[in-house]
Design brief:
This protein is of the alpha+beta class. It is 24% helix and 34% strand. The longest helix has 13 residues, at 9-21. It is globular and about 40 Å long. The relative contact order is 0.22.
Length: 141
């Protein structure tokens, strides 16, 4: 299912479950078990707590989802339930240690990578929405 067909939280969950079964949901760049690999650009790394059981996270760990358009497609901001300490960490270019925490998981669909997830800070998302980089905010129900 591509992003154009997402109408509910359950629709998005099904897309994420499908990506999980195809081993495309979590790329090496965002995998906490690959934290020691140096990347030439900054990245986010999903928390060990989320990554340890992605099925469980998708099934019961999602509190709310907001959908945006970002010019290149749809962008899904996922707020985690309170039993998750944090969503992800930011890692600077050419670094292997995180330098900041992120409180959101982002799900996107790309032509090359298909459905995949990464982390982001809700303050950055709010700024991008306020400046028009993200548009048409809608909560999925």
């Amino acid at each position: 299912m591509v992003a154009d067909n997402i109408l509910t939280i359950e629709d998005l969950k099904q897309c994420l479950f499908n990506a999980l079964s195809n081993n495309s949901l979590l790329s090496d760049k965002h995998d906490p078990n690959k934290m020691g690999v140096v990347w030439p650009d900054k990245r986010s790394v999903i928390s060990h707590q989320v990554a340890a059981d992605l099925f469980q996270f998708i099934d019961v760990g999602i509190e709310r989802i907001f959908e945006y358009q970002n010019g290149g497609g749809n962008y899904y901001e996922i707020a985690l339930k309170s039993n998750y300490k944090f969503a992800a960490s930011g890692v600077a270019e050419l670094a292997v240690l995180p330098h900041q925490g992120f409180d959101r998981i982002i799900a996107v669909y790309g032509k090359r990578q298909h459905w995949h997830i990464y982390g982001e800070d809700s303050k950055v998302i709010a700024k991008n929405y306020a400046t028009g980089k993200l548009q048409n905010k809608t909560e999925l129900l």
